Amino acid sequence: MDSLGPRIKELRLEANLNKAALARKVGVSDVTISYWESGAIRQIGHERLVALAQALGCSLSRLLEGDGVSRAAPLYLHSQPPAPWQDPAAGRIELPFELVPAQQWEGECYLLTPAPGERFDFLTEGDLIAVAPTELFQQTGLYLVEREGQHCIRRVTQAEDGKLWFSAEQEATAEEHRPAIRLLGKLVGRWQPAPF
């Protein structure tokens, strides 16, 4: 994946905008545009990226990935196994650092969305999630788990004694790790559809 900074400049020039005009459209200073283009600022929030793509007249995926990159379509997440990425045709995505700077995840990532009619804790219809397959606890957060033969999303924490605890969205108490619960992947990004 080529650098975001030069791509912003290229798209700005393609849109016949100077830095000041682009800055006004995005709601930032022209100095910020210069920093983005030079790579001095590498972390750009999701809202700013969306505004930047709109101001440049391009899709968010073109802004982040450039032209000619194969794009992975979201995979459907079902409550029944197997995990979506176990399909040989499943396409991985490269998760741009700018989208989830706090995660700093390295490795495979898959873009998922709940399948029609499926309900999952912590997700609503139309949500997109980036999931990194792992059977190991990495850090506190949301994980895709297999629990009693069903896929579900659980917040996973680790106690001081090293035990893992799993909690659902509406549960006041957490459930201790047991053999019937298996980690499948860590949610490293989540995007919700904007209301119209």
TrEMBL record:
Annotated TM spans: none
Top-level taxon in the UniProt lineage: Bacteria
Pfam families attached to this UniProt entry: HTH_3 (PF01381)
InterPro entries: Cro/C1-type_HTH, Lambda_DNA-bd_dom_sf
Entry keyword Transferase: no
Domain HTH cro/C1-type: 8-63
Protein keywords: DNA-binding, Transcription, Transcription regulation
Entries under SMART domains matching the protein: HTH_XRE
UniProt-recorded name of the protein: Helix-turn-helix transcriptional regulator
Protein's organism: Halomonas mongoliensis
